[in-house]
Amino acid sequence: MVEKLTVIFFIILCLLLGFYLILAPWDTIFGNWGDNYLLVYLADKSGIPMLQQSVASNWVRGAVTGLGVLNLIIAFWEAAHFKQSVAMLKGAESGDKK
């Protein structure tokens, strides 16, 4: 039962993280991507104002969105191979007990 819950929580984590990484750079629901407090603070303290501009660029936004798509692919793959993942976790536990 623990193995099934582990795989289910991993799938949920990948789905939520994937959707967040796809939406966060482009939507203002989560705040402005290039003007968040931590980014402005890091750019000021490090003395690198280009840091804020580069993180706000479309290239970085696209890379973060690509990571979100990768997380969704992992989640769907894990859902499609649910039984195999659970069996692998069960096998790893029985191998540790020997």
Short description:
The protein contains five helices and no strands. By secondary structure, it is mostly helical.
Structure explained in plain terms:
The chain has one domain. The model has no long low-confidence stretch (mean pLDDT 88). With 98 residues, it is mostly helical. Helix 1 packs antiparallel against helix 4 and helix 1 crosses helix 5. The chain has five helices and no strands.
Structural category: mainly alpha
Strand content: under 5%
Low-confidence stretches: none
**Rg, nearest Å:** 19 Å
* Percent helix range: over 70%
Task: Walk me through the topology.
Layout: H1 2-23, H2 37-46, H3 50-55, H4 58-80, H5 82-97
Describe the structure using short key phrases.
98 residues, mainly alpha, 5 helices, elongated
